[in-house]
C-alpha cells in the first residue's frame, strides 16, 4: 500500500459520538472539513501529512488555525475513522466514528485481488502446511461455510479438524487467480488420502480429485506442477 491509494476527491461524513464532521480529501497534502453544529462548528482547509499503514489504512495528521492538532487513522477496510485531537486548551480527545462516503474518490485503485490472493495463500498454508489451528479464528469468517460434504460445517469444526491433522498432511500451493472478491487457488495436498489429491479452492467453493500419474493418454501433462507458484511469481514481477 502506498500514498497513491489515498482516495483523493472523496467526500465523507464521519459521525463521532458528540458531533459529525464532513471531510473532502482534496489531495495528499490538503483536506477540507466542515462541522455544522455544536461547540466545534466551523469550516477549514488544512495542510496534511498522509502516511499509509497497510491495506487501506492511513494515518492523516494536521494542525488547525487555532493550534489544535489532529491525527486520524482512516480505516477504509472497516469504514472507521479513529481520531486523536489535542485542543488549544490542552484537552485531549479520543473518538471513533463510522465513515459514510457521500462522493467517491476521483480514482479508486482496486488492489483487492492482490490482497485477497495473499490472504487466501496465508489461510491455506497456515492450516494445511503449518497445521496452525489458531489461524482459523484469525483468517476465517465467523459464518465460514464448507462446501465439502465430508467436513462438518462451521469454524469450530474446521479448527478441530486442523488440530487433529496428521503431520503427514502437507499442502503445496500452485497457481492463484483473483478477480474482485473471488480467489481460486490450485494446489496439491499429500497425506489426506492414500494418494495425493489435486485441489482447486474457489473461495467459497472447493473441488478435489485424486491425483492421476502422468501417462501418455494424458499427453504427459501433470495435474499439478509445483513450478506453478514460481511461474506466478515471475509473471507478477516481470
Automatic annotation (TrEMBL):
SnoaL-like domain boundaries: 122-191
UniProt-listed InterPro entries: Calycin, MoaF-like, NTF2-like_dom_sf, SnoaL-like
Alphabetical list of SUPFAM superfamilies matching this protein: NTF2-like
MoaF-like domain location: 8-99
Region of interest (Disordered), ranges: 218-238
Entry protein name: SnoaL-like protein
Organism: Rhizobium azibense
Amino acid at each position: 500500500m502506498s500514498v497513491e491509494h489515498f482516495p483523493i476527491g472523496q467526500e465523507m461524513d464521519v459521525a463521532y459520538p458528540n458531533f459529525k464532521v464532513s471531510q473532502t480529501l482534496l489531495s495528499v497534502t490538503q483536506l477540507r472539513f466542515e462541522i455544522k453544529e455544536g461547540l466545534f462548528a466551523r469550516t477549514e482547509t488544512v495542510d496534511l501529512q498522509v502516511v499509509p499503514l497497510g491495506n487501506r489504512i492511513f494515518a492523516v495528521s494536521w494542525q488547525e488555525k487555532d493550534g489544535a492538532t489532529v491525527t486520524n487513522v482512516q480505516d477504509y477496510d472497516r469504514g472507521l475513522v479513529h481520531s486523536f485531537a489535542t485542543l488549544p486548551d490542552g484537552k485531549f480527545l479520543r473518538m471513533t466514528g463510522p465513515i459514510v462516503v457521500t462522493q467517491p474518490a476521483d480514482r479508486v485503485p482496486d488492489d483487492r485481488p492482490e490482497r485477497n490472493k495473499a490472504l487466501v495463500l496465508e489461510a491455506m498454508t497456515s492450516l494445511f502446511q503449518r497445521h496452525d489451528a489458531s489461524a482459523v479464528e484469525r483468517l476465517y469468517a465467523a459464518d465460514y461455510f464448507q462446501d465439502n460434504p465430508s467436513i462438518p460445517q462451521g469454524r469450530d469444526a474446521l479448527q478441530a479438524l486442523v488440530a487433529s491433522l496428521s503431520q503427514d498432511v502437507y499442502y503445496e500451493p500452485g497457481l492463484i487467480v483473483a478477480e474482485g472478491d473471488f480467489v481460486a487457488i490450485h494446489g496439491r495436498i499429500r497425506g489426506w488420502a492414500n494418494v495425493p489429491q489435486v485441489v482447486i479452492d474457489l473461495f467459497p467453493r472447493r473441488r478435489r480429485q485424486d491425483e492421476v500419474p502422468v501417462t501418455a493418454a494424458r499427453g504427459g501433462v501433470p495435474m499439478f506442477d509445483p513450478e506453478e507458484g514460481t511461474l506466478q511469481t515471475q509473471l507478477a514481477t516481470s
